[in-house]
Amino acid sequence: MKRSRQILGLALAACMSLSVIGCSSGSAGTSGTSGQTQAQAQETAAEAGNGQQETGQAKAEAGSEDEMVIGIICNMSSTHAATNGWLIAAWDAAVKRINENGGLDGKMIRCQLYDPESDASTVKQRLTDIKNSGAVCAIYTSGDALAPSAAEWASQNKFPVFLISNTSTQITLGNYSDYAFNMGKNAWGFAKILALHCVGTEGMKNFCFVGTDGAATIDAEKFLIYEGQKINPDFEMLASFRINFNDTEFSNIISSVAGMKPDMVLQQGGGPNFVSFCQQASMFDLFSSCGVYNDLVTDSSTNQPLIAAEEFPYGQTHGVFTMPFWDETMMDEELIQFCKDYRETDVAKENGYFPSDNGLAIYNIFNVLKQAVESCASAGTDYRDSQVLTEAISAVKYSDCNGDHYFRTGVDNQFVTNLYYGTSKFDENYPEVVVCENIETFSGDEYLPSADEMKAWAQTQGYDVSRFQ
Description:
alpha/beta; globular; 7-stranded mixed β-sheet; 15 strands; 6-stranded parallel β-sheet; 469 residues
């Protein structure tokens, strides 16, 4: 389809510069994400009408008195760059609104992008580049595999980094940092929500796992067992199937799962794996006996191929998501406006994007940053000092339509927000995305593990528990 073909090219071009927020790329030696040189990418952007022709570093130095720069670790040189559009629309909308209302402390926000090149050591170098550029903080957007490296760097360099990847215990316990703020879905909490609904409410007795080897996906599996057995000690996993992105035996795996007739399937690992899973599940009639449960990202590249081919299994996929953007009765005016601004961005209009998980994480980051900077300004402290800003971020507390918000400092530094559980459905008002019905709302107090639970688990894994004392 035309829309599917446009996603990669538009996302990559937009990633280089956005005139609305003054977004630019910056890291020594990085090239344009579509194979262009930096100069060619800038020329392409200028021809598109954005006028952004300076390098990120030059502009950061020239505009330091009038700008507040935020560094963003963002995939620009791998196939994952095709998913950047949802992020671009989010920070475009969030920063545009702040800048139109005078900025923060009278300074206009500008986001500067850095490519991690899918490498842990490069992530740390790019974060060092961000710190040295004069940016006030960093946002890491490149998935949970490299997130522990970002958290480790934040701790060593005492510089605030927001992480929007799904949060695993590898981050919250193995690489815990007071300077790494976890804004994504918590894998333990995700599993607990599924346990509360599937085992507690629905009375399910077993499941099969089909997924990848990522830290967050492994946590989802083990904590579904852990939390499910709290409710029903006989709850069990029938089988666990690990799949890589090129697994030619996918059909054999799904046929095996279908033959076991589990009460539920926990599917983890999006993109091609989810598409293949749904296609094979339909072929082997898996959905006639059970549903699939996962991170039900309402708008993503994971869903689009299935929707376009009219193969999405509405009513058979269930799971956890962060925002019912289709239902304004569940949102306040600020979030409604953000969703409207999001959909009015160039990249969202071109591709039909709606805000969902990562979009809300970006929205929350800028809300937190706004309050932290304002508190520093009121107190007469210098938020350009990374320690001062970190302490201000840690102290942010507020409530909105998504519940009570704060960071669980000393526990997992998780940003607390409501999460939602629902079942997918087709909605003629939103035919290009997946929306949900039968929605349940879970507060942070309901789904996040307690400090005592975190400490007990950390001890079993050999992690440092001194901060829990």
